[in-house]
Amino acid sequence: MGAVKGKRMPRAVREQQMMDAAVRIFGQRGYRAASMDEIAELAGVSKPLVYLYLNSKEELFTACIRREAAALVDAVRSGVTPGEPADRQLWAGLRAFFTHTAEHPDAWAVLHSQARTHGEPFAAEVAVMREEIVAFVTLLIAEAAREAHDNPLLPEADVAGLAEALVGAAESLAVWANAASGVTAKEAAATLMNFSWSGLGNLMDGKSWSPPK
Q: Does residue 2 register a pLDDT over 50?
């Protein structure tokens, strides 16, 4: 339960308290089933106050998406230490991603399940977040190619495609890991690292797979 109704606090703090409650309700019940009454009760405020601060259910949901998307992107970026070997950077980024999604399952449900399935403008907000993560992973893969060769041998389109595939796999694996019993963030990251890094290593050594003729 949130703070006692009527307790005075800064607007920004109160607003974050409401969004905390909203993320929990949206994540567990879904956007359609969630009610402003439930959110207000969990936040420990009146429903009119929620509307006063955040105007509508749609705007509240959009604000939650933006906040949680920014938090996820920041977690992934902050988890990587520039200058380390490429495999260590990719490992750190994956581990940061799975740690964040495991520690914030309701937020991940909002981003991955709810926002994407309820049309615009929600899906567009998540798309912006995903583009940032894909761009970051693209840089990591390109850096790995530079480490392997004096000049990167992987075409730009291949690097972009690999980044898209890796991010998509991470998203699916995060859903599975959160639903499975006893799967840690480290184990999830190691699973994807083992799956992807061997393939990346072969590509960088010029050992790409080709379909049979």
A: no
